């Protein structure tokens, strides 16, 4: 077995941008993968392109149970609980993961159903403003971070070999599509996602509204800085609501911090002479630290989102003594991991 082998077929529920792109990449890698899509037109399009896809949920779950597939929930948070009940009924022994951008709410729903010994949370930090099967593409996850959670390892007195195998397979799945695996528990993940994923949506929406309020001339003058800062405002509003409302507590902390910075900047602008020196200097240094950590430099953005990465790398063997401590260490460092 190589470091990118997955020990079982993969069944993806929901074939929008993330689920559909995962289906494409796993298929391209030669791995057995099949899926379900609620949209019949999307399912037909996928079948026409040669993919193993159905618009019937129950038969798909029954097949997953027969083949002991790893199930991936690639649906909005609002659809997760109903799907968990369906998995419990029709695929009661299958391991499963999800790709929802908020992890605490999913883990709470899993625990409420007693399913945590079959569940490993995950979240690929990749995407575009588009949605649906038609937005899916190959290569979306190349060098993107894929967060893998490990709360059950910390919460349970002892985890089963079954859960450890599921955890490893989720890591292998992410590696198979070219992602860098970064472990994190659900709380730290949601706190970080609020700062670097969900808050940017609020700021983008705000900037788009302020620009639009300037009328026709403002929109005519808008160029690259306005385009770049408002890019994610083009995301379907229902998806933005699901992300931000589902992570409200952590997002409020990040938003309060942003508002305090903006208020301080406003105060400095109202002085004589006006100044944004502190904001510009601090923001510039923060951006450089981001570039150094991710390799996402300005000269590279038009070529590839992640050409190189300076994240530390830790190698580990799931199930070995003290691997929980290794995962905590990796979480603290923001390190990527390789499993063997």
Report on the structure:
Residues 292-312 are annotated as: Disordered. Its EC number is 1.3.1.12. Keywords: Oxidoreductase. Pfam families: PDH_C (PF20463), PDH_N (PF02153). This protein has two domains: 10-184 and 310-339, Rossmann fold; 189-275, 6-phosphogluconate dehydrogenase C-terminal fold (Orthogonal Bundle), CATH 1.10.3660.10. Residues 299-307 have low confidence and may be disordered. The chain is of the alpha/beta class and 340 residues long. It starts with 9 loop residues before the first strand and ends with a strand. The radius of gyration is 21 Å and the shape is globular. It has helices at 17-28, 40-48, 57-67, 80-90, 104-112, 151-155, 161-176, 186-213, 215-221, 224-229, 237-246, 248-269, 277-294, 323-333; strands at 10-13, 33-36, 53-54, 70-73, 96-98, 122-124, 145-148, 180-183, 313-316, 336-339. 51% of the residues lie in helices and 11% in strands. The longest helix is centred in the middle third of the chain and has 28 residues, at 186-213. It is built from 14 helices and ten strands. The strands form three sheets. A five-stranded parallel beta sheet has the order 3-2-1-4-5, sandwiched between helices.
């Amino acid at each position: 077995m190589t470091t990118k082998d997955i020990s079982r077929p993969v069944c993806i529920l929901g074939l929008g941008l993330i689920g559909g792109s995962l289906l494409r990449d796993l298929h391209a890698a030669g791995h057995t993968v099949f899926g379900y899509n609620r949209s019949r037109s999307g399912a037909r399009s996928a079948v026409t392109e040669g993919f193993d896809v159905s618009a019937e949920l129950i038969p798909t779950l029954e097949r997953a149970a027969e083949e002991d597939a790893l199930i991936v929930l690639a649906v909005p948070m609002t659809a997760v609980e109903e799907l968990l009940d369906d998995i419990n009924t029709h695929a009661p022994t299958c391991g499963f993961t999800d790709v929802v951008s908020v992890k605490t709410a999913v883990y709470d729903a899993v625990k409420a159903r007693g399913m945590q010994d079959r569940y490993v949370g995950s979240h690929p930090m990749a995407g575009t403003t588009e949605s649906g099967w038609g937005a899916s593409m190959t290569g979306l996850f190349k060098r993107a971070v894929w967060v893998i959670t490990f709360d059950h390892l910390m919460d349970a007195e002892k985890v089963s070999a079954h859960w450890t195998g599921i955890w490893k397979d989720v890591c292998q799945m992410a590696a198979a599509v070219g992602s860098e695996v970064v472990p994190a528990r659900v709380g730290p993940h949601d706190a970080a996602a609020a700062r670097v994923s969900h808050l940017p949506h609020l700021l983008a929406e705000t900037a788009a509204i302020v620009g639009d309020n300037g009328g026709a001339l403002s929109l005519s003058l808008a160029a690259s800085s306005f385009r770049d800062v408002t890019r994610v405002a083009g995301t379907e509003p229902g998806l933005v609501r699901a992300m931000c409302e589902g992570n409200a507590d952590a997002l409020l902390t990040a938003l309060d911090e942003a508002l305090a910075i903006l208020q301080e900047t406003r105060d400095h602008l109202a002085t004589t002479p006006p100044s944004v020196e502190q904001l510009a200097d601090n923001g510039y240094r923060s951006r450089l630290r981001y570039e150094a950590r991710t390799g996402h430099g300005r000269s590279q953005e038009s070529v590839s989102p992640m050409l190189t990465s300076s994240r530390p790398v830790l190698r580990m063997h799931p199930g070995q003594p003290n691997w929980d401590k290794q995962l905590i260490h990796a979480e603290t460092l923001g390190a990527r991991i390789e499993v063997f």
